[in-house]
Amino acid sequence: MSKESLFAVSLFPYLGFLYFLTKSGQTPKLALIGFYVLLIFVAVTIPAGIYAKQAYGLELANVDWLHGGAEFFLTLSNILVVLGFRNAVQKLKAD
Fold first, then answer.
1. 3-class secondary structure, 59
2. For a tag site, which of 12, 28, 87, 95 has the least CB within 10 Å?
3. Cα–Cα distance for residue pair 69/55, rounded to 1 Å
4. What's the pTM?
5. Tell me, what's the pLDDT at 3?
6. Is Membrane given among the entry's keywords (predicted)?
């Protein structure tokens, strides 16, 4: 299986994860937003990778400005998840 196919197939389990995480109602809101922002990362990475291949003949990882722009959304997602859970833990400690 190619890495592109694996990337596409991995989206379905992640959507299931988001569905159950949202449905549980137990995930801190900011962390949940962070998990959804990861979908923006995926949505940006795919066309950026296609553009890198067509415009430069290179993989996305080898076109720094495109790769960095796409990775920004991964970083943002991670920050939101961490802050969401951090705030929830602090709230539990305060109670």
1. coil
2. 95
3. 16
4. 0.85
5. 73
6. yes
CB-CB contact of 33 with 84 (8 Å):
yes
Tokens encoding 35:
């998990």
* Contact partners, residue 36, CB within 8 Å, separation at least 6: 18
Segments making up each domain of the chain, as ranges: 3-94
Q: Largest Cα–Cα distance in the chain?
A: 56
Contact yes or no for 59/49 (Cβ under 8 A)? yes
The Cα 35–Cα 14 span in angstroms is 9
The string of pLDDT tens digits covering residues 60-79 is 999 999 999 999 999 999 99
Which pLDDT tens digit goes with each residue over 3-53?
778 877 888 999 999 999 999 999 999 999 999 999 999 899 989 999 999
**Token couple for 52:** 């890198």
Q: Residue 9 is which amino acid?
A: V
Q: Is the dihedral of CA 82, 84, 85, 88 positive or negative?
A: positive
